């Protein structure tokens, strides 16, 4: 396979949708001086390169406020875990990052939510283009009732002008990246719904990366999977982390500590603590964080 281009769908023979440089996205300057942690004033904080910048975000369903004045910078090419008890706003935040909440009539939000120059919350933002950059994988695998091949080819057919050979190459590349190619290569034109749950989830990841996102949002991607499939997804996240920015919502503390670089702990719609995962699980600053990661509540 040749080197990944920085722009998906360009009409060259190299059609892999994303590459390590991610150079086509507007960028906040590396070494953004904003701290990536909200805790421990005085403690040195490593300056990660920010991909998603969130400032003073308030999110509502009607009158109910689900997220309160949230400020957090999501670092590029890292895995960030969102943890916290049920109802604390983790999914709401994911759903605002790729504007899924547009489909909820009562949902509204204020504050800053940016990916580089792109103002995610702005009314004029092209949501279809945004979702190419910010893919999402849900709790329950949701392949389309189509063939395995057509699931992965769906987005590229919509957004890119590719020859049959280029599309074949892209489908293969995406399935390889999602670590499911070997299992499906001989049944590409069979129904996706005939795959196991773990295979379906990896297919959904292949479908998400086929259109060249910068970031993959994963909302409890393993909660419907058996332990072996869960391990396969975790291994996959480890492999993808160099090329993608991954945000995972999880209730599984082992998973957060195994898979993520950074962890954000939320409680009742507020960010309590955001730090390196190792620190959150060994020496958190807040008692509430410690109680949660030790399983004392939630
Ligand atoms: N469509 C909606 N309409 C009204 N309220 C909603 C809607 N979706 C979520 N909420 C409320 O917003 C709050 C945050 O919900 P959210 O789903 O973001 O929490 P969560 O931390 O992801 O929870 P869980 O871990 O159980 O998935 C909850 O009180 C929830 O009931």
From TrEMBL:
<dbReference type="InterPro" id="IPR017871">
    <property type="entry name" value="ABC_transporter-like_CS"/>
</dbReference>
<dbReference type="GO" id="GO:0035435">
    <property type="term" value="P:phosphate ion transmembrane transport"/>
</dbReference>
<dbReference type="InterPro" id="IPR027417">
    <property type="entry name" value="P-loop_NTPase"/>
</dbReference>
<dbReference type="InterPro" id="IPR003593">
    <property type="entry name" value="AAA+_ATPase"/>
</dbReference>
<feature type="compositionally biased region" description="Low complexity">
    <location>
        <begin position="1"/>
        <end position="17"/>
    </location>
</feature>
<dbReference type="GO" id="GO:0005524">
    <property type="term" value="F:ATP binding"/>
</dbReference>
<protein>
    <submittedName>
        <fullName>Phosphate import ATP-binding protein PstB</fullName>
    </submittedName>
</protein>
<feature type="compositionally biased region" description="Polar residues">
    <location>
        <begin position="19"/>
        <end position="40"/>
    </location>
</feature>
<dbReference type="GO" id="GO:0016887">
    <property type="term" value="F:ATP hydrolysis activity"/>
</dbReference>
<dbReference type="Pfam" id="PF00005">
    <property type="entry name" value="ABC_tran"/>
</dbReference>
<keyword id="KW-0067">ATP-binding</keyword>
<dbReference type="GO" id="GO:0005315">
    <property type="term" value="F:phosphate transmembrane transporter activity"/>
</dbReference>
<feature type="domain" description="ABC transporter">
    <location>
        <begin position="52"/>
        <end position="293"/>
    </location>
</feature>
<dbReference type="InterPro" id="IPR005670">
    <property type="entry name" value="PstB-like"/>
</dbReference>
<dbReference type="InterPro" id="IPR003439">
    <property type="entry name" value="ABC_transporter-like_ATP-bd"/>
</dbReference>
<feature type="region of interest" description="Disordered">
    <location>
        <begin position="1"/>
        <end position="44"/>
    </location>
</feature>
<keyword id="KW-0813">Transport</keyword>
<keyword id="KW-0547">Nucleotide-binding</keyword>
<dbReference type="GO" id="GO:0016020">
    <property type="term" value="C:membrane"/>
</dbReference>
<keyword id="KW-0592">Phosphate transport</keyword>
């Amino acid at each position: 396979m040749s080197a990944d281009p920085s722009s998906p769908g360009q009409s060259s023979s190299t059609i892999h949708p994303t590459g390590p440089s991610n150079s086509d996205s507007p960028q906040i300057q590396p070494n953004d001086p904003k701290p990536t942690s909200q805790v421990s004033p005085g403690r040195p904080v490593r300056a990660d390169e920010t991909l998603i910048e969130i400032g003073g975000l308030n999110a509502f369903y009607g009158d109910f406020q689900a997220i309160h004045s949230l400020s957090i910078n999501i670092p590029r090419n890292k895995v960030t875990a969102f943890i916290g008890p049920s109802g604390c706003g983790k999914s709401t935040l994911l759903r605002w990052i790729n504007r899924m909440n547009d489909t909820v009539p009562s949902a509204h939000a204020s504050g800053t939510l940016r990916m580089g120059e792109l103002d995610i919350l702005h009314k004029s933002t092209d949501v279809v283009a945004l979702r190419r950059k910010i893919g999402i994988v849900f709790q329950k695998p949701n392949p389309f009732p189509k063939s395995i091949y057509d699931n992965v080819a769906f987005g590229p057919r919509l957004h890119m002008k590719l020859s049959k050979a280029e599309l074949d190459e892209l489908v293969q590349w995406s399935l390889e990246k999602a670590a499911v190619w070997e299992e499906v290569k001989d049944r590409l034109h069979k129904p996706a719904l005939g795959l196991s749950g773990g295979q379906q989830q990896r297919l959904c990841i292949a479908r998400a990366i086929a259109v060249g996102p910068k970031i993959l949002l994963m909302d409890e991607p393993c909660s419907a999977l058996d332990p072996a499939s869960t391990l396969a997804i975790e291994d996959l996240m480890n492999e993808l982390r160099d090329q993608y920015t991954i945000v995972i919502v999880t209730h599984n503390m082992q998973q957060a500590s195994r898979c993520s670089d950074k962890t954000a702990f939320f409680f009742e719609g507020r960010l309590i603590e955001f730090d390196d995962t190792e620190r959150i699980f060994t020496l958190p600053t807040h008692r509430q964080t410690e109680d949660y990661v030790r399983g004392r509540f939630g």
